[in-house]
Amino acid sequence: MYDIVIIGAGTAGLSSAIYALRSGKKVLLLEKEYYGGQIVFASEIENYPAIKKISGYDFASSLYEQAMSLGAEIKYEKAVSVENNIDEKNVITENNSYKCYCVIIASGLKKRRLGLENEEKLTGHGVSYCSVCDGAFYKGKIVAVAGGGNTALMDAVFLSDYCSKVYIIHRRKEFKGEKVLAEKLRKKENISYMLNSTIEKINGSEKLESISVVSNDSKIQNDIEVSGLFIAIGQIPDNEIFRSVADLDEDGYIITDDECHTKTEGIFAVGDCRKKDIKQLATAGADGATAGLKACEYINKKY
Fold it and tell me: What pLDDT was estimated at residue 42?
C-alpha cells in the first residue's frame, strides 16, 4: 500500500515525488518509457530559474537522483486505468495493480505526427522525432526540421553543428518559438528557411530519400533530397485511460482547478497533460510542488 502513486516520471512527476517524500509519504512512480520525460532530449535548457545553462539529460538526471535519494520507488510499467474506490485508489498497469490513497497523473504528452504516408515506415530510417538522440548519425549530411516552435528551433541549431545543411520548414510565415532562439538560428550559415510551406510527401522505399515541400502561396512543389527529417510540430495528450476519474477538454487535456485537483477527490493532474495556458519546464515543477503538497494535505485530513 502506497500513500501516493504518481503516473509519469517527467519533471512534474518527479517534482511531485520530491515534495511528497519530504513530507514523509511513501511514493511510487510509474513510468512507461524513461525517467525525465521529453526534457531529456533537449540539447540545452536556458530558461529555468537559477540555472544559466544545462542539458536536458543532466537536468532530468539530477531531478531523478534527488527523488531516489529521498526514498522514491520507480517501476517501469505502463498504467492502463485508475479505479476510485471508497477507501483507496487502485492504479492498474499492464502487469500489476497498486493500491494507494492518492494518485497524481503526470503523463505528459506524446509527439505529434505529420500523418503522412511513409512516416511510420521510415521512422528510424531517416525520420526522427529526437535530434539529440539521432543527430550525430547525420554528420556531414543534409537534413530538414519540420516545425516552428522552441523545439524545432533548438533542433535546427543543434543539427547545424553536425550537418552540412539544415532546412527548417514551417507552415507559417513567422516562427512561434522564442526570439532568442530565432536569433541563434540567423547566425548559422548552413540553415535554409522554407517558411509558409508544408511537407506534403515523405519519399523513399527502404530509407528516406527526399521530401516534397509545397509553398502555401504559390502552390509550387519542391522535392528536396535529405538524409534525415526531424519532426518537431508539437505534442498531444494521451489521457483517454483517465476519463473515468478526470474530465477532459475537447483536445484531450485533463481539466483541473488551480491546485491541480481533478473532478475526483484525491486524484490530481500535473504538468503538460493538464489544461493550462503556459507549458514550460518551470510550470511543470510548480505543478509538481502544488500537487505533491496538496496530496499530502488530503491524506493527512482523510486518513
Answer: 83
